[in-house]
Amino acid sequence: MNLNLAMPYTDTCSEPQTPNLAFYSPQSEDMLFTPEHLSTQTPIEIFCQAGIRAVSLAWTLHRNALAKPFRQGVAEALPADRFRTNVWPQDLPPGFYDLRVCLDSGAPASIAPNRRPVSGICTFGWRVSEMAIRDTRPADFMSFWDNAKAAASAIPMDGRIESCIATFGQDAINEYNLTNACLPADYDPDGHTAKEVESYKVSIAGPDGGRVYGWLAKPKGPGPFPAMLILPGGGFAARPRPLEHARHGYLALDIQIHGQDVDLSDYPTIPGHFSDQQYRPVDEYYYYKVHQRVIQAMNYLAFRTDVDAARIAVAGGSQGGRLGLVIAGLDNRVAAVVSAIAHSSNHPHLRWVDGCNGPSKSPVCDGMDLLDAPHLTRLRLRPTSYSM
Question: Is 181 found in the same domain as 296?
Fold first, then answer.
């Protein structure tokens, strides 16, 4: 539901549909391990199922995204082209780790040069709730964003209904999901709380003199309902009506974060979004106004009398996943956030990793320091002030 797109649904998976390497662990479905998963002196067991005939599987263990390994070995070969790697966690600090593998199929590269050798990465977490949190924010971070939020909130809301109010029953929601929302017809019937929903286009005043457009959908009735703000992934495209969210009981708002309408036939790319980015002054950076549009959408939801303002959730994928995390950090009205594939949301860690993997490696990345928590405070990962 947080990755809905304005396009038809198909049952085709993203490539590769049948991967050459598939990882799993019977100890933890989500690959997040704690001491509770393991008995005394028990290793983390990670299995790799090969999709092709296999002879052996070599592995190396790395801190997440780091090129330099600190352990290596050969996995135990099992029947049916499976391999088991035991990772002993007793001396691992809390964090995320990459198990990089290389599969030997026994066939020379001349037979299938595009698929040999077969390599892959399995990322897992060990005691991640105990990871150290390092504050990399500039000293004026909160004052800067308090001013940005105040500026957005000072804009008169000027909420408008931009289309007729349409009512959708169960069959109509199923049809819309398949043809317009990139969703299966009905994948969670037990979660329905509304037999009918109503939907219409809305707009509110934006931070740049323009409008913020969105599709709103809600259960029929006066509410108040819990609300969900849905944020789009990267790019410029139409947005779908969040009907599925509404029949699960939410007043849902799916917005276009670029100040464009939600149902155009053509979407021009706005300069500054990806290329020609301007970082100074900070309030001229492209995403500054994007964040303000999202804050204004939060203001709109909290303003509505049919919304339970204590139960506003944010959901999104990729760019929308990152925005959800940012807004949850800036706005304490966000009661819950569900982010998928949160693109570049761990920017300080990525900068630290880049320093370790690049030609001018940081001293903290040498040798067994790879097992230490990232020394983010030793690096200048952010400008010292937002007012530069």
Answer: yes
Angle at 121 between CA 362 and CA 318, to 5 degrees: 80
Tens of pLDDT, residues 106-123 = 877 676 655 567 899 999
- The torsion angles phi and psi of 284, rounded to 5 degrees, stand at -100, -5
User: Cα dihedral angle (104, 109, 110, 115), rounded to 10 degrees?
Assistant: 90
- The SS3 assignment for 168 reads strand
State the CB neighbour count (10 A cutoff) for residue 1: 19
Read off the pLDDT of residues 339-358 as tens digits, 9 standing for 90 and up. 888 877 677 777 778 778 87
For residue 90, tell me if it sits in a domain.
Answer: yes
Domain total for the chain?
3
Q: Tokens at residue 172, please? A: 């109509």
Quick count: other Cβ atoms within 10 Å of Cβ 337? 21
